[in-house]
UniProtKB/TrEMBL annotation:
Source organism of this protein record: Planococcus koreensis
Keywords: ATP-binding, Nucleotide-binding, Transport
ABC transporter domain location: 2-231
Tree of life domain: Bacteria
Name used for this protein in its record: Acetoin utilization transport system ATP-binding protein
InterPro entries named among the record's database cross-references: AAA+_ATPase (IPR003593), ABC_transporter-like_ATP-bd (IPR003439), ABC_transporter-like_CS (IPR017871), ABC_transpr_LolD-like (IPR015854), MacB-like_ATP-bd (IPR017911), P-loop_NTPase (IPR027417)
CDD domains xrefs: ABC_MJ0796_LolCDE_FtsE (cd03255)
Molecular function terms from GO: ATP binding; ATP hydrolysis activity; transmembrane transporter activity
Pfam families registered for this protein in UniProt: ABC_tran
């Protein structure tokens, strides 16, 4: 499903004409099968966000190949990449990134509106998913009227509403207390099982990585360990 082969990237820092190249990712090779949960673990500064940004096509790597569902993404033009991203990826962030002026239902509905789905169909699809993620009771609540865990459920539902095959999650429980973290991890696991969605989770937290079928550990831009914990 996701194939990253000998990916390297560096950033140039310093004044123009006097730049230094700092390697951030070195010869990364990792593969994620369809339906797996993969965790990319690493301390702050190890290169996790850079790897996720390259995987999502927000950044073009210096060298190496990134393919998703057989499509090599570095060969896509910017507009093709935007289209590819919409169809293939859902995003979950540590800080939820909900629209404050929309209630829970409307936040989840938004991607379907953008896609041009008609209102009655949207309602049916959103209500079904809200039930699945345990949000039916709070459909009309605005983000500031929801707990952190509920806000993350909304953002997970919004990521899933267009049925993307892959969810990219950046520290999805980083803003939550440990009890709520466990609830969200259980939800991710059950959505992965029930819907067959592939998850790539970047985290510094071994607890979060514990739900993954496959763990990759980054240290100073190098993959130090790729562990298959349990098959799907
Ligand atoms: N645009 C940039 N220009 C120069 N250096 C950068 C840039 N973006 C990131 N870096 C450097 O690359 C390294 C990896 O950063 P990255 O954000 O990928 O790490 P991370 O593991 O996601 O860290 P965190 O967990 O703190 O978000 C860091 O040393 C960072 O300073």
């Amino acid at each position: 499903m996701i194939e990253i082969n000998t990916l390297s990237h560096s950033f140039a820092i310093g004044k123009k004409g006097n730049e230094r190249k700092i390697p951030v990712l070195e010869e990364i090779t990792l593969h994620v099968k369809q339906g797996e949960i993969a965790a990319i673990l690493g301390k702050s500064g190890s290169g996790k966000s850079t790897l996720l940004n390259i995987l999502a096509g927000f950044m073009v790597p210096e060298s190496g190949v990134v393919a998703v569902g057989g499509q090599e993404i570095s060969s896509l033009k910017e507009s093709e990449m935007a289209d590819f991203r919409l169809k293939n990826f859902g995003f979950i962030f540590q800080s939820f990134q909900l629209m404050p002026g929309l209630n829970a239902f409307e936040n989840i509905e938004l991607p379907l509106k953008i896609k041009g789905m008609k209102a009655p169909e949207r309602r049916a699809v959103v209500e079904k998913l809200m039930m699945e993620v345990g949000l039916s009771e709070v459909a009309s609540h605005y983000p500031n009227e929801l707990s952190g865990g509920q806000q993350q459920r909304v953002s997970i539902a919004r990521a899933l509403i267009t049925n993307p095959p892959v969810i990219l999650a950046d520290e999805p429980t980083g803003s939550l207390d440990s009890e709520t973290e466990q609830e969200i991890l259980d939800l991710i696991r059950s959505l992965n099982r029930n819907l067959g969605v592939t998850f790539v989770i970047i985290t510094h937290d071994d607890e979060v990585a514990g739900i993954a079928n496959r763990q990759y550990r980054l240290h100073d831009g190098k993959l130090v360990k790729g562990v298959q914990r349990h098959a799907i």
